[in-house]
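Re: your question about Lipopolysaccharide N-acetylglucosaminyltransferase

S., sorry for the slow reply, the queue was backed up all week. Below is exactly what I fed in.
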Amino acid sequence: MKGLLICTEKLPVPPIRGGAIQTYIAGIVNILGKHHNVTVLGTSDPSLPQEETRENVRYVRVNGQGVFELYAKEVVQYLRNNSYDIIHVFNRPRLVPLIREVCPRARIILSMHNDMFDPAKIEPDVAIKAIEETERIITISNYVGKVICELYPQAASKVRTIYSGVNLDVFVPWERSQTAKQIRNQLRSEYKLNGKQVILFVGRLTPKKGADVLVRAMNELSRRHSDIALVLVGGSWYSVDKVSDYVAYVRALAARSPVPVITTGYVPAEQIHHWFWAGDIFVCPSQWEEPLARVHYEAMAAGLPFVTTQRGGNPEVIINGNGLLVEQPENPQAFAEKLHTLLSNRDLQRRMGNAGRRLAEERFTWSRVAKEVLQVWNG
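Result:
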């Protein structure tokens, strides 16, 4: 069967500039390519060729310039000249009716990673048409599926949750690898973190991700714990180190914090796991209805206990005591309390971290994700 995966216009595949959707596609595509004739259609990048084949998978890149309308034209033009049995669209329901016009017989699958069915992002008549023309809607969390079905109840029979995955060979507990131990020691030495319990944030520095709330939580924590530090890994946008107003605000808070706060700026995707090795406790302080942040899987795979928020799909990854849930994400005190629980009990940290790694091995492998996607493809 000839299959086409269509990525979004924002970032390229492979995920050389990061991105959750790009990472997802890269995680499953080689396995799909063993069973079917697979092409990935995505946006161009100066460091990647317009066309190439890697491990039985063909990559075609068109110049969408990060703008949906331009990208959609390029996608439609490509499909006028190339036919596929199955077309798997990622997170762009607006593409579906356009694809159907030029591919009347193709089976269309839609993967949803966030709120692109929100009426502010798609006209209701276009959304209804997209649902009608789609055979199956895969969501990365039950929360994403629930929101779609609340807006469009007719989608209910087509929605299926397939949780994302993580590379268990890259994200490993630091104790299991000599290389990881060396990198952990190097980073902790370089950033003066030796002897500290390191609290870790990994993500874009934007208001909805909540790094500022986490920095403010340090004020309370510093009264109870003298041996802590906070590391904020990430820039304002993938592969960008621009200092936005919010980044400047977070850095100003960090400068006044009674606890050492390190802001790394943008870290290349292929080095992110180094910081999971350097950290001790991971925190996802999301302020918005997060679809389900993939950093949870990375923290679990790295054997870190984590604290997350009761927002969107995030609570769905708290299973068998692998993490703690903050019910008032806007309140720094709420984070301080949960972090105090972990910081005061190294044995609890270890047990939670081990539970997370076990869970990642059992449920969140890319081979499991690919197997479930293949089930959908094979009908």
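The mean pLDDT is 97. The chain has two domains: 2-165+365-377, 174-363.

Happy to talk it through on Thursday.
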